[in-house]
Amino acid sequence: MKIDSLDFFYLSMPEVEDIGDGSQDALLVRVTAGGYTGWGECEASPLTTIAALVCPMSHSACKPVVASVLGERLTQPSDIVRIHQKVRENSMDLLQSDHALSGVDIALWDLLGKMCDEPVYHLLGYKHSYSKVPYASFLFGDTPQETFEKAKRATQQGYKAVKCGWGPFGKNLQADIEHVVAAREGVGQENVLLIDAGTVWGSDVEVAKSRLKILQEQKVTWLEEPFHTSALEAYRALSNESKTVKLAGGEGAHNEFMAYHLIDYGDVGFIQVDAGRVGGLTSAKRVADYAFQKNVTYVNHTFTSHLALSASLQPYAGLEGHRLCEYPIELKPLAYDLTNDHLELNQGGEICLPEKPGLGMELNLETIKKYLVQTQIIVNKKVLYETPKL
Amino acid sequence: MKIDSLDFFYLSMPEVEDIGDGSQDALLVRVTAGGYTGWGECEASPLTTIAALVCPMSHSACKPVVASVLGERLTQPSDIVRIHQKVRENSMDLLQSDHALSGVDIALWDLLGKMCDEPVYHLLGYKHSYSKVPYASFLFGDTPQETFEKAKRATQQGYKAVKCGWGPFGKNLQADIEHVVAAREGVGQENVLLIDAGTVWGSDVEVAKSRLKILQEQKVTWLEEPFHTSALEAYRALSNESKTVKLAGGEGAHNEFMAYHLIDYGDVGFIQVDAGRVGGLTSAKRVADYAFQKNVTYVNHTFTSHLALSASLQPYAGLEGHRLCEYPIELKPLAYDLTNDHLELNQGGEICLPEKPGLGMELNLETIKKYLVQTQIIVNKKVLYETPKL
Does a structural domain hold residue B349? Predict the structure, then answer.
């Protein structure tokens, strides 16, 4: 079978707010081969990633992503690995191509799973899919009281782990202390508390260190992204003093190498991988294998739809000891309504991947239509991109 | 003074060939403030980088680059550093933004230089600009004989250093040996020979090692990009055995951190920085400072116009011991004719930066008009980008 079509759909809420909520728009990928359809999702900036798909060639190592995908043979996992490698080589100098590749790769695995009547995690080499403990991921409140209430509400909804991030955090030590104390009060002593600094400290180790005491006292499991993804020396320096608090990072990695570096040089305890950025499931599975081997815990990063959520869990579905998973709970309707299926918490407060072919998520075409952004790119009078028909 | 306008111009040769020649298209940046105009250039994929400039916001850390630049104050170097940081923070999740920022940053330094009536290297902190030894950079011939002739021609034109790269190199050991021997014969024993593998070996250390003997025998000064920019372990492993042949790499770095990693973890002897990718002159100067401190030699990477060439030399203009510079000699007319000024070899086979304000290069508007690619991006019936007026 050959890949017959590759289409990108740009979705957006009518208003996009200036907040750290990545569910306000989406770039959906649809790929078809032999009558089967696969879906994937890219992070982030839909327009820019569409351009990476269709742009004119600049030179031999800077080709549009579509050129390495359309017409390719697809019958087994090694075909996806081959296509993945072809994109990486042919689009090496096209920076955004890693994000475009990510959604395409996810869609290819979904398609192959449907073709083979297997869940993706099987195709990736896992026999079983183990349930994960989702942490409710939300923005810090504007006040400690609001943080407390958000955390409390999450645990009341059945979450055994909670992550607070971004918002006001990181700018003022005293305020940070109050927010962390409030968050711990909200989640209770028996549950897991995680803190996400959202790279707020750049590469400033000293200012990050000043937060370690309160994080240790409040038994925070990880401190996420104290620094820019590439500030490896800073990660290592902080890790040397963080004791019970492990560092977490990696969401910015746009290839597997960057994740390896955080493990090898940055000394993180948790490696967080966004399958929609790192190069799809092909790259994410490599990171999971590497993390397992290095005794580092893999965690998904995702803040969009349940299609992206299902995709993000497949690469470590078979790693029993890697228990936590990110689970955004403040999704915009665009993201939540994108799928008819959802990965809901079971009575034990855990989630399981669907035992269905591919990613196991049925798309809601009405949602796509509702939020579809009509887009057109014209170069020298030639229409390179136009929002495709559903 | 405030930044009044920021415009991108997409230029292309009528035909773009599937070869490793980056001078076939260009993305020019024009910025104006207080009646002054600055010019810069981004690498690569003009359409994708334009999208990064104008795309709709996805969330607070994924904003279009233009939003962090227009209207900003610009009167001194620290203003550029501030704008640079603002783009990095506001466009953190927009991968291509690093390439867009690069051209914008270059144009800002050019503009500030004109405003202050100073060459950019002065503003970057250097008192003197030292002449550099350009290496003629060209693709390997299809046959060793052709490689020999290209190398011979370059030395006859006055070059004291020659770099052969890409093309057939890296795929067959015996052919590689013949090409390297032919290149050395062409340049003669007295001149510098450099080899560029163009990441052909991915992260395969063994296959790279098999080339070391011939490179050592032929007194090759550096082996460039044996691996993917991020394959740091592979770089280090090869470096441990490369003896007289130093490794060179870094052109793929899209921020200063990636260059630091090649120095710290990859053990390169030469760090090659493309100012049009790494984050402009602001980031490139940081890499130059770091390299100097770590006893690693800085080299520019550039394969486009003399505007880009002048920009690429400014960050290490004042480093007297860092002698070599890349100097593409097979530029397409688009790239060569883009400027009225050119950095030509002097009688000693060296080049000097112009002692003029900014980057010291006058643009040729006729060339821009001739190769201008009319481009339009429409999102939800709103024209987000249209090729601007010259």
Answer: no
Does B82 contact A at CB distance below 8 Å? Answer: no
Taking residue B289's Cβ as centre, other Cβ atoms within 10 Å add up to 17
The alpha carbon of residue A224 is apart from the nearest alpha carbon of chain B, in Å, by: 16
Grade residue A328 by pLDDT with cuts at 50, 70 and 90: confident
CA distance B3 to chain A (A): 23
Residues of A in contact with B56 (CB under 8 A): 12, 16, 25, 47
Lowest mean pLDDT among A40-44, A327-331, B186-190, B341-345: A327-331
Which token pair is A365? 């075409």
The answer as to whether B345 is a domain residue is no
Q: Reading across the β-sheet that carries A324-328, which strands appear in turn? A: A297-300, A270-273, A246-249, A222-224, A192-196, A161-165, A133-139, A324-328
Q: For residue B44, what pLDDT is reported?
A: 86
How many residues belong to chain B? 390
Residue A138 binned pLDDT confidence (cut-offs 50, 70, 90) = confident
Q: Tell me the residues of chain A between 276 and 335 that have a Cβ less than 8 Å away from chain B.
A: 277
pLDDT of residue B60: 94
Does B223 share its domain with B101?
no
pTM here? 0.96
Q: Look up residue B213 and give its two tokens.
A: 């003997």
Neighbours of A363 (CB within 10 A): 18
**Shared domain check, A135 and A110:** no
Instruction: Find residues 242-271 of chain B whose CB sits inside 8 Å of chain A.
Output: 252, 254-255, 257-258, 260-261, 264-265
Specify the number of domains making up chain A.
Answer: 2
In degrees, to the nearest 5, what angle opens at C-alpha B233 toward C-alphas B229 and B237? 110
Same domain, A161 and A265: yes
What is the per-residue burial (b if ≥16 Cβ within 10 Å, else e) of A148-184?
bebbbebbeeebbbbbbbbbbbbeeeeebbbbbbbbb
A66 inside 8 A of chain B by CB: no
Q: Do B21 and A45 touch (CB under 8 A)?
A: no
Q: How far is B198 from chain A (nearest CA, A)?
A: 10
Q: Are residues A68 and A132 in the same domain?
A: no
Ranking A279-293, B128-142, B280-294, B357-371 by mean pLDDT, the lowest is: B128-142
**B379: nearest CB among A99, A255, A373:** A373
Residues A128 and A83 in one domain: no
Q: Does A93 touch chain B (CB under 8 A)?
A: yes
ipTM score of complex: 0.95
Q: In 3D, which of A86, A163, A108, A195 has the Cα closest to residue A330?
A: A163
Residues B83 and B176 in one domain: no
User: Which residue is it, tokens 């991109």?
Assistant: A385
User: A161 and A133 in contact (C-beta within 8 Å)?
Assistant: yes
What is the rounded distance in angstroms from the CA atom of residue B80 to the CA atom of residue A68? 38
Contact state of B55 with A46 under an 8 Å Cβ cutoff: yes
CATH number at residue B262: 3.20.20.120
pLDDT of residue B329: 82
> What does the pLDDT read at residue A167?
80
Residue range B270-280, pLDDT digits in tens: 999 999 999 99
In the predicted structure, residue B91 carries a pLDDT above the cut 90: yes
Model confidence band, residue B230 (pLDDT cutoffs 50, 70, 90): confident
**Angle (CA) A243 A205 B93, round 5°:** 105
Q: Which domain holds residue B275?
A: 123-336
